[in-house]
Amino acid sequence: MDVSIRGEKPAGTVVVRLPLFQTILSICLLGLVQVAPPSAHGYTVQRINFGANVRLRTGDIVHNGTALGNGAEQVFDQGTLNAELTDFSEPVDVGITAGVGGGGMLTASIDRTVAITIRLSRAERQACVGPEDFDITLNINSPLPGAFASSTPGGGSIQVTGFEPVYRGGFGNRCPNSLFYGYRMDLELEGALADGNYQATADVEVTFNGGATEIIQAPLEIQMPSVLLLYHRGQINVNLNASALAGAFGASSACGDDYCMDLGSRTLTLSDTTGIVPVGISDPGFNPLQTINLRGAIGARGVGCAGGIYGTATYEIVTAVGGIQTASGIISGIQNSPCSMTLRTGDLPVDLDLTQLDSATGRASATIQITVTGL
Amino acid sequence: MDLKSTFKKVLGVGLLGAAAITNSTAHAAQANVTVDVSLPTVLVMYHYDSITLNILESGLAGFLVGGTATACSGGTDYCDNQPTPATIDVTAVTPTTTVTQAVSDPGLGATAADFVLEDVVGVRALGCTSYTASYGDGGSDAGVTISPATPLAGIDTELCSFGMTMGDLQFNLDFNNVAAGATTVQAVFDVTVTGV
What we know:
Chain A has 375 residues and is mainly beta. Helix content of chain A is 7%, strand content 49%. Chain A has helices at 19-32, 122-126, 242-248, and strands at 34-35, 44-47, 53-55, 62-63, 66-67, 73-77, 80-85, 92-93, 106-119, 134-142, 147-150, 157-172, 176-188, 196-208, 213-224, 227-232, 235-240, 253-255, 258-262, 265-270, 276-278, 289-303, 313-321, 328-330, 344-353, 363-373. In chain A, strands 1, 2, 3, 4, 5, 9, 10, 11, 12, 13, 14 and 15 form a twelve-stranded mixed beta sheet that branches. In chain A, a hairpin with a 3-residue loop joins strand 12 and strand 13 (176-188). Chain A starts with 18 loop residues before the first helix and ends with a strand. Chain B is of the alpha+beta class. Chain B has one domain. The chains are: A mainly beta (375), B alpha+beta (196). At the A-B interface, strand 6, strand 16, strand 17, helix 3 and strand 19 of A face strand 1, strand 2, strand 3, helix 2 and strand 6 of B.
């Protein structure tokens, strides 16, 4: 992913051989550059907008290889789950994870077209020094090793997983008098909590032909967008096993192809000669309202939630057929819980009235609407 | 009338309205989850593991005498007072005189009896129209007869439902065939209920 900074061309498109462009750029550089003290070798390292505020948009964030859309709220349908329910007392494990359906790691990359300029001395130009003579290393060492820190207290951090200089070209005719470098920075956003600015200081280490290393520090700043990610299954098919229903009826064991409930022993007395013994088996009854608990059915991740927590997380069963009861409620694992890029999951309860089951159609169904707020 | 002031108020109201509309839809992630539950066919039979049926002496004694047995005076068993016998003439008296008068056996009302265990099996089901229910002998003791494939009255041919449907079991006990000295006799039922 390329993050194009306003006013810059995309990476890899800089061509700086035209004399007119040389002149214009030279004039611009005079106004913008921060110049390091001259080195013993004669060259100078100049920083051009190295520490500019890089504004990430949600579309710049990559979700396990796929860029997010541009909206602050993103919804990920993780497809269909087919599950067996063998016992109402056991949940159906939906197992929403951030790694399914395009989820997983949240990353971003920054490609700066021109960040460092090495201006060569006359002697170096005459010696036709080139990029092969320089070894440039980029590191982040503060305020955290290899990470940006939020300017908001407690706002988390952004890990730098890759930070490499990219040589863009030289400026000059036969031999260059300036060498231009950009950089590519790979970021892992899992530790980000707050939106807004994240800051770090980059160490630019320049070594010329194996000589002494010159270290220049440059501030960097990334502006993190607020984003709320909602994960769900679009379709959950629950195969209600006969054992689950039999269990709800009190059946304690399988007998033959079906189920039995052993009511234990009983002692009766026959005192007359009729031979009629009124046993009168007692109906143990059953709870007609059983709950199918869809555990971990909803997942959420967020950055920049108000107060650092999710707002409301609710479900509403908007259509219900064949014994499923309409209902609404909160998703307790998410509502008012800490908001971060760490996936939080919540359960969905679906109440089923057994007395309303329709054996003719053989199915019950519901549409559950999920709403999560936070930004 | 201050036209300028009026315009400001109208504009202010308009902006507030626009803000309210925007806020009502902002910052909420929404999704729909469709849940389909496929239902099984299931049948649950409720039964007792064992039933101990104590036949009281009075009932059995009555059965033996073919009527109502009378408790013997001072005892715990039963007596059947026979009619007063005819006068017996003793024509010869010896040191050991035998007087012969056989008690007349009133006979048994029947040698066997049917026992019906009413509402002893229950069933409820989903996914069927009606029940076929029957029972047979599952290894009863001598003297007990359970007819094979006997329809289970009360359940057989009844409609399937979540409400419990109850049925009866019946066995025949022939006292003539009960093992000598036996104090218990076991009837074992094999019950089969099918939803169709």
